[in-house]
Amino acid sequence: MTTLETRDLTIRFGGHIAVNCVSCTFRPGELTAIVGPNGAGKTTYFNLISGQLRPTGGSILFDGADITQLSAPLRTRAGLGRAFQLTNLFPNLSVEENVRLAVQSAHGVHYDMLRPWMTRRDLIARADAILDEVALGGRRNVAATALSHGDQRKLEVALMMALEPKVFMFDEPTAGMSIDEVPVVLNLIAKLKQDSSKTILLVEHKMDVVRSLADRIIVLHNGQLVADGKPAEVIASPIVQEAYLGIAPGKSAA
Ligand SMILES: Nc1ncnc2c1ncn2[C@@H]1O[C@H](COP(=O)(O)OP(=O)(O)OP(=O)(O)O)[C@@H](O)[C@H]1O
């Protein structure tokens, strides 16, 4: 079964082809790491899938439906989860308020003067559980904008979890985090993996993170898909050794 598929997905910026005819399928219960050197097209590929960019060629299928022309918000509503950027959210609201709003949105609960949201104990409990999972319970009353970089990344993950998507897309989720903050996010992703109905895509530079989490690795290089397979096979392949890890054939990877 396939949740998500890109067919010959392509985008040109002027004369430069940032993503070049990438065909790939993503399945539930599988965490696919997307790796490749700087400028390989990983983030652009993510932006195409989540709808931040429109392709110049090819198509994207989600649950069998062609979503190539669907807006980013509609893709989110359909179940494609991409970590939010706090600038697009409510930076002056507290951590707790942000998570509650995301939970509320996921359950289709809108502002209702006759029924204050505080009566929805189930949704409040869900928001509290997510805050605990991302280890932000102690920061619940802090304005999102006042969080440390690491805590902001955790809040982004919390908001994505609150929306209960079918596909989770993580773009370097631990980038810029201090060493003691990293395990919280990695453990969260590992926990998400236990739900076999979820499809997880992870763009990641750190090979130790990729090794510990990935069921499969795809490699982008100059916008093209150059390798796709089990982590051990892909890491050992000559193209990854040379193009990505910068290791001459015949030598072993670190
Ligand atoms: N909006 C844009 N306009 C023009 N060129 C762009 C645009 N976005 C990306 N590019 C170019 O497309 C190529 C792929 O960039 P992208 O950010 O997707 O690479 P990446 O693999 O995510 O790199 P990194 O690992 O450094 O984040 C780069 O050459 C980049 O300069």
Automatic annotation (TrEMBL):
<protein>
    <submittedName>
        <fullName>ABC transporter ATP-binding protein</fullName>
    </submittedName>
</protein>
<dbReference type="InterPro" id="IPR017871">
    <property type="entry name" value="ABC_transporter-like_CS"/>
</dbReference>
<comment type="function">
    <text>Involved in beta-(1--&gt;2)glucan export. Transmembrane domains (TMD) form a pore in the inner membrane and the ATP-binding domain (NBD) is responsible for energy generation.</text>
</comment>
<dbReference type="InterPro" id="IPR032823">
    <property type="entry name" value="BCA_ABC_TP_C"/>
</dbReference>
<dbReference type="Pfam" id="PF00005">
    <property type="entry name" value="ABC_tran"/>
</dbReference>
<feature type="domain" description="ABC transporter">
    <location>
        <begin position="4"/>
        <end position="247"/>
    </location>
</feature>
<keyword id="KW-0067">ATP-binding</keyword>
<keyword id="KW-0813">Transport</keyword>
<dbReference type="InterPro" id="IPR051120">
    <property type="entry name" value="ABC_AA/LPS_Transport"/>
</dbReference>
<dbReference type="GO" id="GO:0016887">
    <property type="term" value="F:ATP hydrolysis activity"/>
</dbReference>
<dbReference type="InterPro" id="IPR003439">
    <property type="entry name" value="ABC_transporter-like_ATP-bd"/>
</dbReference>
<comment type="similarity">
    <text>Belongs to the ABC transporter superfamily.</text>
</comment>
<dbReference type="GO" id="GO:0005524">
    <property type="term" value="F:ATP binding"/>
</dbReference>
<dbReference type="GO" id="GO:0005886">
    <property type="term" value="C:plasma membrane"/>
</dbReference>
<dbReference type="InterPro" id="IPR003593">
    <property type="entry name" value="AAA+_ATPase"/>
</dbReference>
<keyword id="KW-0547">Nucleotide-binding</keyword>
<dbReference type="Pfam" id="PF12399">
    <property type="entry name" value="BCA_ABC_TP_C"/>
</dbReference>
<dbReference type="InterPro" id="IPR027417">
    <property type="entry name" value="P-loop_NTPase"/>
</dbReference>
